[in-house]
Amino acid sequence: MKLLEFEAKELFREEGIRVPRGLLVSEHEEILLHMNELGKKVVVKAQVDVGGRGKAGGVLMADASNVVETARHLFHTPIKGVPVPRVLIEERLAIEHEYYVSIAIDRSAKQPVILFADVGGVEIEGTAKKNPDAIRKITFSPLLSDVPNFLLRELTGNVPDGVREMINRLYRVFCKKDALLAEINPLVTTPEGVYAADAKLIIDDNALARQGIAVNRDLSEREREAEKHGFSYVELGGTIGVIGNGAGLTMSTLDLIEYYHGRAANFLDVGGGADQERVMHAVRLVASMPGVTVIVVNLLGGITRCDEVAKGIIAADVTPTVIVRMAGTNEEEGRRLLAEHGYRMLESMDAAVKTALEVAA
Ligand code: GDP
Ligand code: MN
């Protein structure tokens, strides 16, 4: 899960990484009361999970005379379509230089990897494309609790010691917080020292419980509903809904849709031994996502009985067309029930997906 800037900065601060003094505000809060704590010049930053936020107008400069107006502007201006519920007002740093640092896991090397560039800031993606040599990288043993000094020097070249110190602290955050990604862009030097001007932290979802982070805070209504029923459910954005039992079957269905150039809207794994009731909830849930015009139900009847599945689909009675492929226990009874109610049941997964694509088109 990706933390917002102010949350990441809080965790950075705990590890001794210097971040600007700041004030987190929601709309209608008395910003001016706190302005003298932050100094005359401030930066007003939308707290939204949007890449390229600064370039999209989510980071604005202000001073005491217009900070309220600036914050209000942000509250009323979605950034790349994402509404802004909170704004972080920070003392404005007198930036001398912007660096880029990012820590992740290199999966093929099975080691932590640190990327560094001494040209940080909002243009880093352009730099990565146009001048990839400007971004240096090191990998090292995950058994080490600190980044080896000689590698850190190799990575950073000629920079103030505070920059290296901060990278080491960032690595500690990365380890302690079970992060998949810890990034500072820009990491800046100022006359007052080195600061993390921005903060990005993605926590491994499998570690949220032990990190004490609420798991479902960003879930949509449908995702909450899925969690309630114990379904694995993911939204993708196309027009074809997918229901399977077991991760393998569900994924192959998605692969096949992709193969035929279709676009899945979402997918739901009902798990083992789904009865009529569960199937009905699954079908209704997948159908309730806006944009879904057809649903592929691809099930293997083992403990799951095909006649139960058929009854669930019939009971769900949803608007999108439901195309079924299932095989196994009580298959014939399932087929009979579906046919009786005008549903199409196909012999192969391939045929089911092709038919769904035709319906979607
Ligand atoms: P992002 O676009 O979401 O990555 O937002 P950042 O927090 O990285 O801010 C974007 C850019 O705004 C930075 O690269 C800086 O150039 C600038 N910026 C952010 N904070 C400050 C600050 O305190 N002082 C100054 N002078 N510039 C800042
Ligand atoms: Mn940034």
From TrEMBL:
UniProt cross-references to InterPro entries, sorted A to Z: ATP-grasp, ATP-grasp_succ-CoA_synth-type, ATP_grasp_subdomain_1, Succ-CoA_synthase_bsu_CS, SUCC_ACL_C, Succ_CoA_ligase-like_bsu, Succinyl-CoA_synth-like
PROSITE patterns (alphabetical): ATP_GRASP, SUCCINYL_COA_LIG_3
Record-annotated ATP-grasp domain positions: 9-214
Molecular function per GO: ATP binding; ligase activity; metal ion binding
Record's keyword terms, sorted: ATP-binding, Ligase, Magnesium, Metal-binding, Nucleotide-binding
Cellular-component GO terms for this entry: cytoplasm
Superkingdom field: Archaea
The protein, known as: Succinate-CoA ligase subunit beta
GN (gene name): sucC
